[in-house]
Amino acid sequence: MRKFGQGSIAVGALVAIVAVALFSGGAVAGSRGLIAPIEDENGDAIGSVRFRRTDDGEVKVRVNARGLAPGFHGFHVHTTGVCDPDAVDTTGNAFPFFTAGGHYNPVTANTHGAHAGDMSPLLVTQDGRAFLRLKTDRFALGDLMDDDGSAVILHASSDNLAHIPATTSTGGERYHSHVDNVLGADTATKATGDAGARFGCGVIERVRS
Fold first, then answer.
1. How many domains does the chain have?
2. pTM here?
3. How far apart are the first and last CA of the chain?
4. How far is CA 118 from CA 3, 90, 129, in A?
5. Measured between alpha carbons, how far is 30 from 66 in angstroms, rounded to an integer?
6. Residue 116 near residue 59, CB atoms below 8 Å
7. Which of 180, 195, 203, 207 has the maximal Cβ count within 10 Å?
8. φ, ψ dihedrals at 155, nearest 5°
9. Does residue 5 form part of some domain?
10. 15 burial type by CB count under 10 A (0-12 exposed, 13-18 middle, 19+ buried)
11. How far apart are CA 179 and CA 190, in angstroms?
12. What are the pLDDT digits (tens) for 29-87?
């Protein structure tokens, strides 16, 4: 029978620890976390979004962006890590970054505002720059690095978070959907928050240095 010394046992234990760390959702990217370098459809860099696991198990998100129109912009994690500026939609029309899919939303019953990938709208100052820091417990780092990856989309318009009331206190119409012929938010609003075109896209990847 082959015998193993203490050194072999120690090496085996270390391998086991490393394996656990690699397959743990929170530690999949190591201490350096994840990053999504954001580019517009012309391939120009407009910023980055960084993700790092905090000591309390949540995810810290840090955004630095430039070259955006002043005001609020929608900002979400999308389901697929492919940013193709020449993409077309299902009808064959040009739709930059359509390849990134919809909002990351593992609980499919949730509508916009409650998607796991929905984050605070990004406020851009008059000089076109934006800085944002937030924490979320809606996903772990490992969730963003699944088989088809994930992406971050910066939208051209503000995000209403689907907060469209159906009626006034007296029962009058506040908002009517000419798409679905119903009072309240239509299907597009419930999916995207009417945040407009996909201005910038970045594939989420492990930080290399």
1. 1
2. 0.75
3. 45
4. 54, 23, 21
5. 28
6. no
7. 195
8. -95, 160
9. no
10. exposed
11. 12
12. 445 899 999 999 999 999 999 999 999 999 999 999 999 999 999 899 999 999 999 99
> Domain range spanning residue 67?
30-159+194-206
Q: SS3 helix, strand, coil % of the chain, rounded to 5?
A: 20, 30, 50
Q: For residue 98, which of 112, 76, 83, 109 has the smallest C-alpha distance?
A: 83
Cβ atoms 70, 83 nearer than 8 A: no
Residue with tokens 């938010």: 185
Task: Show contacts of 96-103: CB within 8 Å, 24+ apart.
Answer: 96/41, 96/197, 96/198, 96/201, 97/41, 97/151, 97/153, 97/198, 97/201, 98/198, 100/151, 100/153, 100/198, 100/201, 101/151, 102/78, 102/191, 102/192, 103/76, 103/77, 103/78, 103/79, 103/191, 103/192
CATH of the domain at 51: 2.60.40.200
- Whether the Cβ atoms of residue 185 and residue 101 lie closer than 8 Å to each other: no
List, for residues 108-166, the tens digit of each pLDDT value: 878 777 788 988 889 999 999 999 999 999 999 999 999 999 999 999 988 877 776 66
